[in-house]
Predict the 3D structure of the following.
Amino acid sequence: MLLFMDGMAHYDTSRIAVKWTSVDSTYVTWSVAAEGRTGNCIKRVSTYPGNPAGFLTIVPLTNRLGPWAATASGVCGFALKIDDLSQLDNSTVVLANTILRIVEGPSYHVRVQLNRDGTFTLIQNIGSAEGGSGATILAHSTEGLQSNAWAYVEFKWLIDAAVGTFTIKVNSITVLSYTGNTRENEALFNSIGIWNAIQILDLKSIAGPPWLILRMCDFYLADLASSVTDDVKDFLGDGTIATIKPNATGTTTAWSPVGVATNWDAVNDAAVPDGDATYVGATTAGTKDTYNYDDIPTGSIVKGAHWVGLFRKETTGTSLVKPVVRQGGTDYLGPEQGVTSTNYDRYLTQPYDVNPATNNKFTAAEINAGEFGVQKTA
């Protein structure tokens, strides 16, 4: 099932860590820049040579049914462009240039190294501090990335000590396929053979300037545990994460607008949310707001949807909300989520593999005719 998506069109540089679980910027700078394939991207610029510290972490919180339970399998993909692959520092065989790390608790199972020639190397963690005796090379790719060119990179994995698998695709073509042990040394780390986070773009630069510069957009993450036909359980392939915003009043307008006259106009901020300048608020449980949204092209193939809201509470105590998907005149409430801070410091997100009204993939017509919103539940 889908766990997370990001098209980078609804926030600015200061809010990268509001959308992603954590942002390591020890030796890099991060920004949201209008330099993506069709709009915004996350841009990473190295500022120090020879140290890979500088990566994004996502810890999934929910799937379409509720709180996520970590599994052994997963898949993710994103568009990536690296200005000059020769700026990668591959001076050591291991502990270098991790484009993806599959994490369980305090350690990891496997990671993917990106090499200066654009190829990939799959590396297994086998114990001690990673070095010549702490990691095993499992496989090398046959092809890879090119400098200064966008590519859509996807990774699929199953963590298992005997029948694990790992596959890498570039632009929908398989470039690495491995079967065997993909689990870390469970005797040392007490792993249970699942993953509960991923880290991406932990890449080293040689001394600059010029420094290693890369851009990333159109990110998705899913697990492969569902048996429902239309839930994500394989590569999605190259796609664009389109961001749509409220553009008109919906059926229910029970929250109170501040700063503007209409509810939808209070919550349709562009790339930079305006905080308390315009917002909607509610104090009573059961209060609901829904909105009409921008249309997507009628011929679009919808592989999933991702509800995103930025909330804060005004007093201490419990504050809970549920996402609302309105289809065919019926409101479908998603899993309950907590608003924990009096500041706007965390986006709440809810992925949908399928339309809750049909349990099949959304169609473009259903997205365009639908309403989306929020209900305060406590």
